[in-house]
Amino acid sequence: MQVLKDEVRNSIHHAALIEFQEKGFKNASMRSIAERGGMTVGNLYRYFASKEDLFYAVISPAYHKIIELTQEPFDNMDNPKEVQQFFEHLADRIMTINHEHRRELLILIDGSIGTRFEHAIEEITLLVEKKIRDQVFTKLKEKGIHIQDDFFARVLSVSLIEGMKVILKHYEDGIKMKLLIHQFIHYQLGDLKSRWL
């Protein structure tokens, strides 16, 4: 029985990232990934039973970090300093995830059709919508601010996620990306921030 080596797994991971980013899941092939990784297709299948299993192994760490980010509470935001710190924390976390998993995020955005991640962006959008509705709007209502329609949480969440997608796809330079993410978050949530104070 062949010992599964970390360097072989790393080679497969790197080859799969390139293949999935260039072709997306649907058009990627295990043969091409094996060639990129410098191995036979048979050897690749010893590590991953299917293209779907390989895709999941490559993409899931980035996906789970984004999900974790959507689960962070909007607590301790009762004064301008706390709100500013939260926005900076949010931008920093997005930048860290992007730095660690840029290719995976781009694949998740544009190359996941035909996989269990096909609707990941919508799932993330729904989690953000729920967070806005359940935490942000609740806090605003506690402060006596009337929200005309809870559907506004949907509008905000879609615009946040779509805006972040555009920024992540457009910028590779970390400094420019971070500045734009900060600006974008402040633009999107700045009015809500001022209503809390």
What does this molecule look like?
- This protein is mostly helical and 197 residues long.
- 78% of the residues lie in helices and 0% in strands.
- It has helices spanning 6-27, 30-37, 41-47, 51-71, 80-110, 120-142, 152-170, 174-196.
- Helix 5 (80-110) packs across helix 8 and helix 6 crosses helix 7 (152-170).
How is the quaternary structure best described? single chain
Helix and strand pattern: HHHHHHHH
* Strand count: 0
By CATH reckoning, the class of the largest domain would read Mainly Alpha
Count of the domains: 2
What is the compact description of this entry?
By secondary structure, the protein is mostly helical. The chain has helices at residues 6-27, 30-37, 41-47, 51-71, 80-110, 120-142, 152-170, 174-196.
Which secondary structure elements does this structure contain, and how are they paired or packed?
Elements: H1 6-27, H2 30-37, H3 41-47, H4 51-71, H5 80-110, H6 120-142, H7 152-170, H8 174-196
Which tags fit this structure?
mainly alpha; Tetracycline Repressor, domain 2; Homeodomain-like_sf; Arc Repressor Mutant, subunit A; transcription cis-regulatory region binding; DNA-binding transcription factor activity; 0% strand; HTH_TetR; Transcriptional regulator, TetR family
